[in-house]
Amino acid sequence: MLLPLTNAPRDYAWGSDSLLAELEGRTPSGAPEAEVWFGDHPGDPADVEGGGTLDQITGGSLPYLLKLLAAGQPLSIQVHPTIAQAREGWARESGLAADDSQRNYRDDNHKPELIVALSDTFESLSGLRPVPATLELLDGLGDSAGVVALRDRLRADGDALRDVMAWLLGGTAQAEVDDVIAAVEAAAGASTDGQWATTLRAISGVAATYPGDPGVVVALLMNHVVLRRGEGVFLRAGLLHAYLSGLGVEIMAASDNVLRGGLTPKRIDVPELLAILDTTTGEVPVLRPADDGAVTPYPVPVPDFALDRIVLDEGPVAARVEGPTMVLATAGEVTVGTASGEERRVPVGTVVFVTPEEESVTLTGRGEAFVAAPGRDTPKGRQEL
Questions:
Q1: What is the DSSP letter of 103?
Q2: CB 223 within 8 A of CB 242
Q3: Disulfide: which of 116, 183, 207, 250 matches 67 by Cβ 3.0-4.6 Å?
Q4: Tens of pLDDT along 163-183?
Q5: Which of 283, 300, 212, 199 is closest to 244 using CA atoms?
Q6: Residue 119 CA from chain centroid, whole number
Q7: 178 forms bridges with which residues in the sheet?
Q8: Distance (Å, whole) CA 207 – CA 204
Q9: Rounded to an integer, what distance in angstroms lies between the CA atom of residue 377 and that of residue 385?
């Protein structure tokens, strides 16, 4: 059975006022539109054509949450727990009400996630940069007191990055934070090229949105990643990240566990953030679209979800159905059909949910779609016909 799904955009303050409307070919609402959720998460289950919501069909059992995400401003710097950390935190906070402002854990699940760019560029901060590279960046910011203090702390023995994060977010380093931000803004204004010019301009833009926020200096420690359309990054548990701007398809394990480290008016629990933060440094691999063929898989090392991008151009594409599956149209004309002859056109920005009893579906038309499903160890099974 094919069930069309829609949902209203969530109006988080960081949302774009145009990106979702442009995708769907409609007039902007005039308000920020940040995310559209296609899932059975109790926070905002998708609407099913004809009435009701998806959770009434699935019983809330869907292992993943599929979203459209449109960032007009930077999101909070954040990190997600492992399953073990989430279970321990959920049990520890069992005495708190579900909506208690002091609660860190909303459920007992992890929240690995994958973002794939739909806009021409999608900017993010993904993972911590190796310390020697950050010291090289800081060498271009001069020798003011805040920059020197940051440089010295990064050179210290032990888990320097964790210690620096504790210092920046602990409430005693505001003078140094302001000084480093001023140095970043000056360098970004003076530099038009060079290795760090793009990164400095991005961090200066973050500072303009969140003046004086210690998270701006935390952002300076992170990899600035610019995705092109069709490229993606997988964000594992413990990995510090923040989206800065752009439109993307996001899929994650069905969880709402977020520990924040800046760029937000929401709760920041520094000790808990540092307890689950993975300070392993290095670039986060970019997953790139296939050079040829209709199907691009985005392999991820978790069982909760799998995602394929399908470009419909020269012929139909078949997809095996192994568990609850979604087809999200993101461009052009996309139609989904079943072996029994049922067909549904999928308007851009909406989803068709394929119930698990279907063995396969066929996508036709000329456009682009993303197929989401529970993860599995075998290849996704998409093939051009």
A1: -
A2: no
A3: 250
A4: 999 999 999 999 999 999 999
A5: 199
A6: 14
A7: none
A8: 5
A9: 23
In this prediction, residue 191 has a pLDDT band, given cuts at 50, 70 and 90, of low
pLDDT (tens digit, 9 = 90+) per residue, 216-266? Answer: 999 999 999 999 999 999 999 999 999 999 999 999 999 989 999 999 999
What CATH fold (topology level) applies to the domain 7-122+232-264? Jelly Rolls (2.60.120)
Q: Cite the DSSP H helix spans in the chain.
A: 19-24, 55-58, 83-92, 131-139, 145-154, 160-169, 174-190, 197-209, 214-220, 270-276
Q: Is 260 a residue of the active site?
A: yes
- The whole-angstrom separation of Cα 372 and Cα 69 is 15
**Contact by Cβ (8 Å): 380, 317:** no
Catalytic residue among 106, 236, 260, 382: 260
Among 308, 123, 299, which Cα is nearest to 219's? 123
Per domain, the residue ranges of the chain are 7-122+232-264, 130-220, 295-376
Domain 295-376 has CATH 2.60.120.10: yes
* Residue 341: burial class (beta carbons within 10 Å; 0-12, 13-18, 19+): exposed
Give the model's confidence band at 379: pLDDT under 50 very low, under 70 low, under 90 confident, else very high: very low
Which runs of consecutive H residues, i.e. helices, occur in 71-117?
83-92
Least Cα distance to 248 among 31, 79, 3, 75 occurs for 75
The label of the residue with tokens 């806009």 reads: 119
Domains 7-122+232-264 and 295-376 share a fold: yes
pLDDT band at 382 (very low <50, low <70, confident <90, very high): very low
Q: Which two tokens stand for residue 350?
A: 């909406």
Q: Per the structure block, which two tokens stand in for 158?
A: 């032990």
As beta bridge partners, residue 317 has 363, 384
The one-character DSSP state at 33 is: B
The pLDDT of 15-44, averaged and rounded, is: 95
E strands, the chain, in order:
2-6, 35-38, 47-48, 64-71, 78-79, 113-117, 121-128, 222-228, 232-235, 241-253, 259-260, 286-287, 295-297, 306-312, 317-320, 325-338, 343-345, 351-354, 360-373, 382-384
Per-position DSSP letters for 145-171, written without gaps between them: HHHHHHHHHHTSSSSHHHHHHHHHHTT
